[in-house]
Amino acid sequence: MNATIDRFCGLKEEMKNSLQFKLGLVTKTVFKKMNAQLVQEGIPVLAEQLPILMVAYFQEHAMTQQDIANVLQKDKAGIQRSVQTLHKDGFLKIESDIEDKRKNMVSLTTSGKFVCERIQALVIAFDNQVMGHFTDEERKTFISYLDRVAAVIEK
Question: Where on the tree of life does the source sit, at the highest rank (predicted)?
Fold first, then answer.
């Protein structure tokens, strides 16, 4: 019985220190903090919606919802729900594709562009606040480790 409990406790510690759990914890904490800052700034957008806005912001032309899903490597249904919410909130414009009426073309509204510029400033300030606790060398090493983890996972 004690051996089973010891194995379980060891597994628990191993899981707690796993890449998935650590990255999940950091992501959850970052999103929670970012959402609080967005609320404080009066920006009615969730941190989870930021990638969609930023993809639209950095594109020169309207994109389909499928294009956005592909860029973000997310499922189309999830992207569609967020696009609809951001459209309802006045940040995204949705128009039927002229050539293929089955496709929706998504682009930013003027309000969406304004919000993206404010969000960029918040993201940069947040990044500087967190990464300010690291030396330049530590920051470069940390980013290179994250890039390497992503590359290993992509293989």
Answer: Bacteria
